[in-house]
Design a protein that fits this description.
Blueprint (H helix, E strand, L loop, with lengths): L1 H25 L5 H19 L3
């Protein structure tokens, strides 16, 4: 049951990440400093939050 929850949560986070990065590439925020902030958040989430799971 925990594995199912973790996989579902990971799927939701992947969908959100893909949406945000797509919007940053094609939408409103093409600014490099904002891209660096978003990339830092991605690394933080993937390596330090989801990685240990």
């Amino acid at each position: 049951r925990t594995k199912y929850y973790t996989e579902r949560l990971t799927g939701y986070l992947d969908q959100w990440r893909n949406h945000v990065f797509n919007e940053m590439r094609t939408g409103v925020t093409k600014c490099r400093p904002l891209w660096e902030i978003a990339n830092g958040i991605k690394l933080l989430m993937c390596q330090h939050v989801l990685g240990p799971l």
